[in-house]
Each structure stands twice: as structure tokens, then as C-alpha cells.
Amino acid sequence: xxxxxxxxxxxxxxxxxxxxxxxxxxxxxxxxxxxxxxxxxxxxxxxxxxxxxxxxxxxxxxxxxxxxxxxxxxxxxxxxxxxxxxxxxxxxxxxxxxxxxxxxxxxxxxxxxxxxxxxxxxxxxxxxxxxxxxxxxxxxxxxxxxxxxxxxxxxxxxxxxxxxxxxxxxxxxxxxxxxxxxxxxxxxxxxxxxxxxxxxxxxxxxxxxxxxxxxxxxxxxxxxxxxxxxxxxxxxxxxxxxxxxxxxxxx
Length: 251
What we know:
Elements (H helix, E strand, L loop, with lengths): L1 H11 L7 H23 L5 H10 L7 H22 L1 H8 L25 H22 L12 H16 L9 H16 L2 H8 L3 H20 L7 H7 L9
Organism: Corythaeola cristata
GO molecular function: glycerol channel activity; urea transmembrane transporter activity; water channel activity
Keywords: Membrane, Transmembrane, Transmembrane helix, Transport
């Protein structure tokens, strides 16, 4: 809701009610609050690529995957519907009732990502892949208690800042979906709400890239963290003992 409504405000307000920075800030705030809301209950699985990665690594039972994906889909779909209702009057005024995916009054990009005109399909795929690698690396580093993990209670804020940083540096080419759950449900909503099947054919059938590239980027991010950081970390007990701190056995 925070992220999509910020895009709507920038697009429909013709730049008078926000800029690129405000969109990135809103998505960062949304992620932070989402983690606080769901972290204690479900681990705050807000991203289907990360959930699938946890299943592949054995950190999450496969039987729980459908429940997480359904929850993510419903949350994202409902967010799109909420923003649509919130800005319906502005949408109608901006488009004169003609909801389009491309053109001077295109509004589909309020809800889902589409590649910039200058970006090739391969370039867009690499952008989403790389951005998701950075997302996973950042999340793993923030929660890495064997290394220099974040202070307890700051993880949600730092993850929001991480998303902000990705948007500030890697958002121009594709709008940085980095999350199948963030992109597909609103795309389905726009197809139903008046934009039609063009949402799946625009950008050289772009819709499948935000589904596959983040999954591969997530797995690559885990691999990079394992090879260059985790394998070189000392166990928590050894590290504390070398520093002269008392040994504490943790579950």
C-alpha cells in the first residue's frame, strides 16, 4: 500500500506530489512496517523468491510454501485494489477513463513494473537478478550473528534502508521488482480492473522476468554469502572466547 500509493501520487500528480526519491522511501517504509507486523508470527516472508529459497535450502518445510505464497498474493492483490480505490477519481481524471499500459497517459506502471524503453529484455533480466542478489546479501548480512550482525531490534529498519538503497541505485531500468509477490498480483489486478491483457504483453512480454530473475538472484545471493562470508565466519562460541568474553551456550 505504501509503495503503490507513492507511485500513484507521483504519476497522477504529474510530479507535483513526489519524485523518484519519495517512491523509494515509501517502499522502504512499507518493508520496515511489514517486517514489524509479520516478523514474530511468520518470519515476515514478504517475498516469494526468498520463501522459495528457504524451502530449497531446507530452512522451511515445502508443505508451508503454498500458505506463504497465498498470503503474499492476497496481500499484494489487496494492496493494489486498495490503491485503485484510493486514487480512482485521480486515475479517471488523468486518463479520461482510458486505462492504458503504454502511451502518454499510461498508468499500469503504478501497480506493476515495466522495463524502460531503452532496456533490452536481457538487460532487464540482469538488472532484476543483480538487484535481488544485493537484497539477499544485505538481508543475510543484517541477520548474521556470527559476523557483524545488526543490533537486535534494528533489523527491520535496516532492511527497509536496504530496499531504499536498491531503489536509489538500481531502479531506473526496471522499477526494481525484486519480488514476484510484489509484481504478479497487482498485474493480475490491473488485467481485471480495466487495463486488459496488455499488462502481460507489454515490454516484450516482460511479466515473466520479475517472476524468474528474483528467484535466481536470491539463490545466487545465498551462494555468494556462503562462499565469501559464512564459510569464513568463526562459530559464535569460539569468537567470543577469543575476545575474552564469557562463553554462553545458546539454543
